[in-house]
């Protein structure tokens, strides 16, 4: 069990690392018996559950490299037990993904919203979506870091304006920008603070 798989589980569902490891082991046992097994780039194995869960295994199937799910608010055990979803209905998921179909990198909706607000000074909506995605992709091409050697894990790069781009990698998948943050002293807040100081002076 790799640290990246456990961290991904904890980031998705919360809870302690020991719980995450136990839940992943339980999911692994189920997927070995009933899941779909696929070979992906680099020889790794992807095990898929029809309920929307996946595990990425090393080429020798000895280590769990990654964890993925379409259910951020429920674990595999909860979905199997019929626990209802607590998340709000998302009406924008399909169109947000469609905007990125042809890109070699993808962006979460939260990243696109923040980029629109902090960088473009607008809102991320259906009408502005194409422009926001194009601008985010164009800027991200200048900061894409070298992927991890096993193509599983995370990397962070900062552009010339102080915007930090947080990339997540999984073998056989496009890299994803999962978070944006600003270096101290950069971004809209820093600009607002400078204006306040200038006005006060």
The 3D shape can be described as globular
> How helix-rich are the residues, as a percent range?
25-40%
Multimeric organization: single chain
Mean pLDDT: 85
H/E element sequence? HHEEEEHHEHHEEEH
Count of separate DSSP helical elements: 7
State the total count of DSSP E strands: 8
The proportion of strand residues reads: 15-25%
Largest sheet composition: 4 strands, antiparallel
Textual characterization of the structure:
By secondary structure, this protein is an alpha+beta fold. Helix content is 39%, strand content 21%. It contains seven helices and eight strands; from the N terminus they run ααββββααβααβββα. It has helices spanning 3-13, 17-34, 76-80, 93-98, 109-120, 129-140, 187-200, and strands at 36-39, 45-49, 53-57, 64-69, 106-107, 153-158, 163-169, 176-182. The strands form two sheets. A four-stranded antiparallel beta sheet has the order 1-2-3-4. It has a four-stranded mixed beta sheet with strand order 5-8-7-6. Mean pLDDT is 85; it is low at 88-92.
Please give a quick description of this structure.
Helices cover about 40% and strands about 20% of the residues. With about 200 residues, the chain is of the alpha+beta class.
List the helices and strands and how they pair.
Layout: H1 3-13, H2 17-34, E1 36-39, E2 45-49, E3 53-57, E4 64-69, H3 76-80, H4 93-98, E5 106-107, H5 109-120, H6 129-140, E6 153-158, E7 163-169, E8 176-182, H7 187-200
Parallel strand pairs: 5-8
Antiparallel strand pairs: 1-2, 2-3, 3-4, 6-7, 7-8
Helix pairs in contact: 1-2, 5-6
